[in-house]
């Protein structure tokens, strides 16, 4: 099941520094929205609020009809049915690729055979079917990020959150992985919020680009030919 996302008057501050200033935003179920803006404009903070890693100072956040955050309260990340991909992959080095990908299924009490089938399907989707028993340290940066992507989708979450997942990769790899992720997101149909400072990446991936500037929505536009090059 996918879900829409609604932010009503969401604000956040680090001490006296207001980082997000009364954000109102509705994201349609199944859409891919890029949050675009320069470093320091509040993109990661907004994503962390969607993930439940921090709480808003004001406002409310809803996933579907369900409130997941309000001033001073936040539903825990593991209770939100989300998948996340970060810039630094955040894989567990002591676990194999398959164990890393299986991790979000741990709490679900699925039969072992179903876990294995899901892990193998997720690894196939990111082109890493033959890497299940490897350790992350033996993989390239691009491959490690594919593992993180497989881990994010394995439990079929209702929302996918990305924070500059391609920033650590060289430009050629960035472009090819970006195109692959665009295709994968279309195929999955999951609601996705994708933080980036790269306009081209946003245009390739997203149905819609929300420009953040100094903690406010500065522009909001639909992308007509998402997933394609002009
Ligand atoms: P972006 O992801 O767009 O680069 P962030 O959301 O990370 O921006 O940061 C927004 C603002 O919040 C910046 O001014 C940054 O300096 C400030 N900030 C981020 N993290 C912290 C922190 N842990 N403590 C204090 N200020 C922070
Ligand atoms: Mg950031």
TrEMBL record:
This protein's record includes keyword Secreted: no
Domain ABC transporter: 5-230
Domain of life where this protein originates: Bacteria
Keyword terms of this UniProt record: ATP-binding, Cell membrane, Ion transport, Iron, Iron transport, Membrane, Nucleotide-binding, Transport
Protein name: ABC transporter substrate-binding protein
Organism: Lelliottia aquatilis
């Amino acid at each position: 099941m996918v879900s829409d996302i609604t932010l009503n008057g969401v604000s956040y501050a680090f001490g006296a520094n207001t980082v997000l200033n009364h954000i109102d935003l509705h994201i349609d179920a199944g859409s891919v929205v890029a949050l675009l803006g320069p470093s320091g404009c509040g993109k990661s903070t907004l994503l962390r609020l969607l993930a439940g890693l921090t709480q808003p100072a004001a406002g409310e956040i809803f996933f579907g009809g369900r409130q997941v955050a309000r001033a001073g309260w936040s539903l825990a990340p593991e209770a939100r049915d989300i998948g996340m991909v970060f810039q630094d992959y955040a894989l567990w080095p002591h676990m194999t690729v398959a164990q890393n990908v299986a991790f979000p299924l741990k709490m679900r009490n699925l039969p072992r055979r179903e876990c294995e089938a899901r892990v193998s399907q997720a690894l196939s989707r990111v082109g890493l079917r033959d890497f299940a028993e490897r350790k992350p340290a033996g993989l390239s940066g691009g491959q490690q990020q594919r593992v993180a992507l497989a881990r994010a989708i394995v439990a079929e979450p209702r929302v996918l959150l990305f924070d500059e997942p391609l920033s650590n990769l060289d430009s050629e790899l960035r472009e090819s992985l970006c195109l692959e992720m665009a295709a994968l997101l279309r195929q999955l149909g999951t609601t996705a919020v994708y933080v980036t400072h790269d306009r081209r990446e946003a245009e390739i991936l997203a149905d819609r680009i929300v420009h953040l500037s100094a903690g406010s929505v500065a522009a909001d536009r639909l992308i007509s030919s998402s997933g394609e090059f002009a």
